[in-house]
Design brief:
The structure is a homodimer. Helices cover 43% and strands 16% of the residues of chain A. The first copy, chain A, is an alpha/beta fold.
Chain lengths: 286, 286
Amino acid sequence: MSAVVAARGLERLSLNQATITRASLRTAVELTARAGIPAIGVWREGIAEEGLEASARLVRDAGVRVSSVCRGGFFTAADPAERRAAHEQNLRAIEEAAALGAPALVLVAGGIPAGTKDLAGARERVREAIAALVEPAASAGVRLAIEPLHPMYAADRAVVSTLGQALGIAEAFPAPTVGVVVDAFHVWWDPDLAEQVARAGAGGRIASYQVCDWVTPIAPDALLSRGLPGDGWVDVPALTRLVSAAGYDGDVEVEVFRQEVWDADPAAVVELVAARHRELVAPHLA
Amino acid sequence: MSAVVAARGLERLSLNQATITRASLRTAVELTARAGIPAIGVWREGIAEEGLEASARLVRDAGVRVSSVCRGGFFTAADPAERRAAHEQNLRAIEEAAALGAPALVLVAGGIPAGTKDLAGARERVREAIAALVEPAASAGVRLAIEPLHPMYAADRAVVSTLGQALGIAEAFPAPTVGVVVDAFHVWWDPDLAEQVARAGAGGRIASYQVCDWVTPIAPDALLSRGLPGDGWVDVPALTRLVSAAGYDGDVEVEVFRQEVWDADPAAVVELVAARHRELVAPHLA
C-alpha cells in the first residue's frame, strides 16, 4: 500500500506507541494512519505480541513509516551470563528494527547493579556492550541511538545521564551506526544543552528527537512523570529550534508515559498529540 | 565556654539541623554537643525562632562551631519587587551567618517563575543576584556557597543544576567570597563529577561538603528523598576521597530530609549519623 498522506502540519510527526500504551500495535498503527500521522515509534513488546513478520506487514500495509524501535540496552549487569543474555536480546532488537525498516534502535543503558554502588563500572560496561553491537548494527543497516535519561534515573534505569556523556560514547564509532536521542524530558534542564545539541548536530549524531514535557510534581511512579508537550516546564518551541538548527531533519516522536494519558481514550490522545505538534513543534522545524 | 571535645572519629563532622528537623535549635545544639559532634549546620528558621543574639550565644556557650547557615538564595523571580525582597532577605542571611561565625551561607538558586518556561532567564537572574551580594558578603566575612541541586529540582527549586554550572558562576568572583557546595545527593550521578570536583578544589572553591544518600524509589514528596549516608546508591567513601583529594579540609555536614528520619527519636538519629560518619566518611578524609 502507498504511504499515509500526512495531514497538514504533521509531515514529521511520529506517534510513539507508548503514548497510547493500552492499544495493541495493530490499533496504534490504525489510529496513527487515520489521524494522518505518517510515522510511529514501535515498542518491542508490541512486536512480540503481533509477531515480527506480521508487525512488518502491518506497518507496510498501513503505509506508516517506523521512526524507531524501543528499545534495546540494559547493558550494566555485573554478571557475565546476564550480560551475554542482554547482548543476545540486543541482536534480536537490531533484527526487529531492520525488519520494520526503522532507522534507529533506541538504547537505554540500564542502572547500577542491585547490591553495588559501582556507577563507574556500570558506565564502563555500557561502552563495551555498545562496541560489541556496532558491527551487527552496521550489517543490518540499523542505527544504535543512545538515549541519555534524566539523572533521576541514574541509579535504577540508565547510567547514561547527559547528552554530552552519550556523545562521548557514540563518537568512538562511525556516525551512521551510532547516534544519540535528544528527548526533551531527559535533557531540558542541562546547562550545556545548546552546546551539546550543536555538537551532536555537527557530528551528524542526532538519531532521534523525542518530545514530551517535564511536569511537576514528579509522579508517584517517577517513570510516569512525562507529560504531553505543552503541559509542563519545557520550552518545546525553543528546543525544537535548537535541534532543527543543528541539522536534524528526521521524525519527531511524541512519547509520553503518564497514567492520565494512558487512562484516556487512545483516539482522543492521538488527536491531542497532533494538535500539540502543530502548535509547538511543526512551526519551529526548518 | 570552651569548644566541644570531638569524639574520636568525629573531628570534622557537622550535624545539619535539618536532619533532626523537629528539634529546636537549642535542642539540636545540645544533642550535637552531647554526642561529641563539634559542629552544626544551622537553618534560618531555627535562628528566627530563637532570635539572632540568643542563637549566637547558644552556639558560643555550647562550644559548637557553626559550619554553615542554610539558606539564602531564591533569586529567580521575574518581578522586580520580589527580587528586591529576596535581596533584602539575603542581606539578612549574611548578617546571621556573620553573627553565628559561620564560614558559609548556602545559596539555593530558586526555580523557574510559575507561569513561564524561562529557564535561561532564571539562570541569568541568579548570576546578577549573586553579583549584588558579593560586596556585602565580603564585608561581613561570609562566604557565599552556591549549591547546585539535582536536576530533578530544576523547574521548581533550583535552576543551578550541576557543579560545573555553579563553578561557572562562582569563578566570576573572588574565591574567598564565592564558593560552591558539593552535596552527595545532588551531584553523585554527574559524569563530569571527578573533573568538576578537581576544578573546584584547584580554585579553592569548595565551601561545603554535605553527605547523604540517593535512595530509590524517589519519595512521594521528592524533596524528602535524601537518605542517611550508606542507605542508598552513592559510593560515599569514594566521593569523600575525591573531595578530600581536591583539598577540602572543612567540616562535613550530614543533611538528610526524609520522613522516617524526621519521625525517629532525634537523639537516636544523631547517634546513627555519628556511626555512619565514622564508617563511611572519617577514614576517607586526608
